[in-house]
Design goal:
It is a single chain. This protein is an alpha+beta fold. The chain has a domain of 146 residues: Cytochrome Bc1 Complex, Chain D, domain 2 (Orthogonal Bundle), CATH 1.10.760. It has 11 helices and 12 strands. The strands form 4 sheets. A 5-stranded mixed beta sheet has the order 3-2-1-5-8. It has a 3-stranded mixed beta sheet with strand order 4-10-9. It has a two-stranded antiparallel sheet with strand order 6-7. The longest helix has 34 residues. The N and C termini lie far apart (67 Å). The structure holds copper (II) ion. The site of copper (II) ion has 8 residues, from loops.
C-alpha cells in the first residue's frame, strides 16, 4: 500500500473509532450501558459478558481473515495442493461454538425469566400506544388506592388519573406496566429502566419498571408505527414517595375555573368550542349551560383517543414527548437537577416564565405541519371521517393567545 493511501486509511479508522466512542458519551439520555434500576441492571449484567465473549470471537475471526488475506494473497504463485475434510478441525469448530452458545444460554434464559417476574408487583399502571403518543392511566384498586397504597391526602376517594407522554412513578417501587395499543403495533422502551416491549392492539403485554433514583429517563417508540414514528417518544419520571404523593394529590384536585373576565376565561370558551370534542379536561363545566363537558374522541380520532389536558402543565413535554413545554434553560434546570432537588423542580410544573411559547403556539397554529400525520398533503385534515392526530383548526392569533392563557392554568 502506498503511504498516502495508508495515511488516509488510518485517518478513516481513527474517525470511525472516534465516532464510535462519541456514541458512548455519558450524557446520552438513552444509553443502554447506564442502567438506573434493577431490571436494566439485570440486562446490563448479561450484556457485558455476552458482549465480551462476542468481542473476543469477533476479533479472532477478523484477525484470522486479515492474516489469510495478507499472507496468502495472489503473488502469481502456483495453486497450492487442495485438501478436503479435516474431521478433527470440523468437529472442533462445531463443538466450540455450541459450547459457547450453550454457556451464554444459561444466564440469558435466567434473565428472561427474572425480567418476566410479576408476582411481587407493587404498583400497576396501564399504558396505551397510539399514533403517535403514549397514554397512561392509573387504575384505582378495589381498596381505593392508586399505585399500590397511595390514597389522596384530602381523604376523598381516588379517581383514575389519565396522563400522557411522561409516566410518573415512585422510586424504588416495582411498577408493572400493562400495555396495549389502540391502532398499530408500538414498542415501549426506556433504556435506563428496562428492555423493550411491543404493545399490540387486542393484547396486553407486561413490562416491569423500577427506578433507583428520582429523575427523568428518556425513551423512544421502537416499532415502526407510521409517519410520525420518530416523533413518538416517552419519558419516565421517578419521584420519591413524598413527591409522588404530592404529584398524585395535585392530579386529583378538583377543576378550578379561570377567573371571570380574564384572558384564560376567554380561552376556556374557545377550548369548549374547538378542543373539548377530542380532549378531556376533568371537571370542566360549560359556564353557559352549567353542564359537564365530556369529550368524545372516538367520534373524531382514528385511535379513538386524544391526550387528557386536565393537568397539561404538570408534564413538561407534549405531543409524544417530542417538544418541550419548558424553555431550554428551564428544561436543563429540571433535567440536570440532582436526585435530591429533582422532585421539587419537577413538581413546579410549567410556569408562565418557563413556558416554551414558540412550540406550543406552532402546535396550536397548525399541528400537522409540525408533526407529520398524513402522507398525502390533501389528506391533511381528515381520513375516513376521522383525524389521524391533532387537526389543523384555523385558529386566529387571538384565539391562540386565549388558549395559551387557559392551558397555563391546567396544573
Ligand atoms: Cu409508535
Amino acid at each position: 500500500m502506498t503511504s498516502p493511501a495508508r495515511r488516509r486509511l488510518t485517518a478513516a479508522a481513527l474517525a470511525a473509532g472516534g465516532l464510535l466512542l462519541a456514541g458512548c458519551a455519558s450524557d446520552a439520555p438513552q444509553d443502554t450501558w447506564q442502567p438506573e434500576g434493577p431490571n436494566a441492571q439485570k440486562i446490563h449484567n448479561l450484556q457485558w459478558p455476552v458482549f465480551a465473549i462476542a468481542g473476543v470471537v469477533g476479533i479472532a475471526v477478523f484477525v484470522t481473515v486479515a492474516i489469510v488475506i495478507i499472507r496468502f494473497r495472489d503473488r502469481g504463485q502456483p495453486i497450492p495442493e487442495q485438501t478436503h475434510g479435516n474431521p478433527a478441525l470440523e468437529i472442533g469448530l462445531t463443538i466450540l461454538p455450541a459450547i459457547i452458545l450453550a454457556g451464554i444460554a444459561v444466564p440469558t434464559v435466567a434473565t428472561v425469566f427474572a425480567l418476566a417476574e410479576t408476582d411481587d408487583t407493587e404498583c400497576t399502571i396501564n399504558v396505551t400506544g397510539q399514533q403517535w403518543w403514549w397514554e397512561y392511566d392509573y387504575p384505582v384498586a378495589e381498596d381505593g388506592t392508586i399505585c399500590g397504597g397511595y390514597t389522596p391526602s384530602n381523604g376523598e376517594a381516588a379517581s383514575p388519573i389519565i396522563t400522557s407522554g411522561q409516566l410518573v412513578i415512585p422510586t424504588g417501587t416495582k411498577v408493572l406496566l400493562r400495555g396495549t395499543s389502540r391502532d398499530v403495533i408500538h414498542s415501549y422502551w426506556i433504556p435506563a429502566l428496562n428492555g423493550k416491549r411491543d404493545m399490540v392492539p387486542g393484547r396486553v403485554h407486561y413490562l416491569r419498571l423500577e427506578a433507583d433514583q428520582p429523575g427523568i429517563y428518556a425513551g423512544q417508540c421502537t416499532e415502526f408505527c407510521g409517519l410520525s414514528h420518530a416523533n413518538m417518544r416517552m419519558e419516565a419520571v421517578a419521584l420519591d414517595e413524598a413527591d409522588f404523593q404530592a404529584w398524585l394529590d395535585n392530579e386529583l384536585e378538583a377543576y378550578t375555573p379561570p377567573e371571570e373576565g380574564t384572558l384564560a376565561a376567554e380561552g376556556e370558551a374557545v377550548y369548549i368550542q374547538q378542543c373539548a370534542r377530542c380532549h378531556q379536561v376533568n371537571g370542566l363545566t360549560d359556564p353557559a349551560s352549567g353542564e359537564l363537558v365530556v369529550s368524545a374522541p372516538d367520534q373524531y380520532v382514528w385511535s379513538g383517543a386524544a391526550p387528557n389536558l386536565t393537568n397539561l402543565m404538570t408534564r413538561n413535554t407534549f405531543a409524544g414527548a417530542t417538544w418541550d413545554l419548558l424553555t431550554e434553560s428551564c428544561r436543563d434546570d429540571v433535567w440536570n437537577a440532582s436526585p435530591e432537588e429533582f422532585g421539587a423542580k419537577y413538581l413546579e410544573g410549567v410556569t408562565e416564565e418557563c413556558l416554551n411559547q414558540v412550540d406550543l403556539r406552532e402546535w396550536l397554529r397548525n399541528a400537522p405541519a409540525k408533526k407529520p400525520m398524513y402522507a398525502e398533503p390533501e389528506q391533511l385534515t381528515e381520513t375516513d371521517g376521522k383525524y389521524r392526530g391533532m387537526p389543523y383548526l384555523a385558529l386566529s392569533e387571538e384565539q391562540i393567545d386565549q388558549l395559551v392563557a387557559y392551558l397555563l392554568e391546567r396544573k
